[in-house]
Amino acid sequence: MEDFKPDLHARSEWATLHDVEVAEVSPASQPINGRIRVPGSKSWTNRALIIAAMAEGTSRLSGVLKSDDTYWCIHTLRQLGVQIEINEDEVIIEGVNGDWLKKDGTLYIGSAGTTARFLPGLLAASKGGRWTMEGSTSMNKRPMATLITALQELGAQIKYSEEDGFLPIQLEGKGIRGGVVNISGKTSSQFISGLLIASSYADVPVTIRVVDHIVQHAYVKITLDLMEQFGARVEYDDSLSTIKVYPKAYKGQDIQLEADASTVNYFFALAALTNGTVRVDNLSYDTLQPDIQFVDVLERMGCTAIKGDGFLELQGTAQLKGNFEISMREMSDQTLTLAAIAPFADGPISIHEVAHIRKHESDRIGVISECLTKMGIQVEEREDGLTIYPGKPLAVECNSYDDHRVAMSLALIGAKVAGVRILDPGCISKTCPTFFEEIEKVGLQVRLEKNA
Ligand SMILES: O=C(O)C1=C[C@@H](OP(=O)(O)O)[C@@H](O)[C@H](O)C1
Ligand SMILES: C=C(OP(=O)(O)O)C(=O)O
Fold first, then answer.
1. Is there an atom of ligand 2 within 6 Å of 277 CB?
2. For a pLDDT cut of 90, what percent of the chain falls above it?
3. 315 marked as binding residue
4. DSSP string spanning 229-271?
């Protein structure tokens, strides 16, 4: 992977660090202590933007995340004729009531798995229009087939423009019939979320049968929760094995979005590593976002969590505990966070059941194994996970492979080891453009090197 080139075209106007080649991170002089507020959740933001755009009437969304993923989502919706006004982190959207106003064009969705999987069904379900949807280099390599096949079975007019199973795709707004559809959830929960979001616009009810398990099933619950907030009629039980959606247009809403639980954990991991304390003032443990359960993993490693009313606090420990095996399937965006702090535990940590993250922004199991090995840490890589042994990482230079979670996780190692160098740190703008500023504010030393 040595001659890897990031796709800089996917960096948006909300990205930072455009001309930064390397971020060098070094430890704080004392434990990381701080009170922080974290930007809005990518998952809630892109769902709410897309559903509000399709809805009848006006929606006002507060606490919106401003990052590459949400920028390209808004950009695409505007290309479809949706009126969107942005004031700081508040967005006002005039919904198109099921009928996109601009009926042709090429829609560029950047690297956002959410937009790539949530929008095609709503394009196909609309009343007329012909579009091409394409993504960044990494998004164009991520799987789409399970979703597209399911939508086609419901009558959606979607064709692959280049390679079967991948973006770019061509879509026609000719409506979707509805009926019964079987779908697999083992590669991505986003396929099921995308199918659900579109199903409210089918001619007759849609019954979705999940033929296996859903990786990160909580994201499907977030989808159902938000659909219901926008007035959808859905029936499901806790197992999510069968979900029925009745035809019913979304109605515009005023919604306060939650902070991003995935982002929060980088700051909790800093407290964990340095025996410090970090309090997050705008998220509580009762969120539906699955990554909140990483707090429980940190507790298992010897940290203490205070689950307050409207806040969360994590107190670190003098020595992180290892010697355990864990399935990260239900919160797999935190696999790299755990892998980055694992060398500092007092025993090996084995992570299982995350084969699907090889198909995220990068081959995440392969990339983190490569980085840790380069740092001199003993790693055993398996198809569905890895085992990391305790050790003292060497300060080397690692590529972020255009993956925000690789860059943010490597920065954690810089809390313990002076001079960890991260190539192309700008990829953090996919979900957290302010990441390096924020870790500096809580005490880490960050040196940004610009392109010569
Ligand atoms: O629906 C969502 O908002 C997400 C679902 C998950 O994806 P997969 O189910 O594809 O793993 C997660 O990794 C991603 O960051 C956000
Ligand atoms: C997998 C991720 O993103 P996406 O929404 O593009 O799937 C992620 O944020 O870790």
1. no
2. 98
3. no
4. HTT-EEEE-TT-SEEEEE----B--EEEPPB-HHHHHHHHHHH
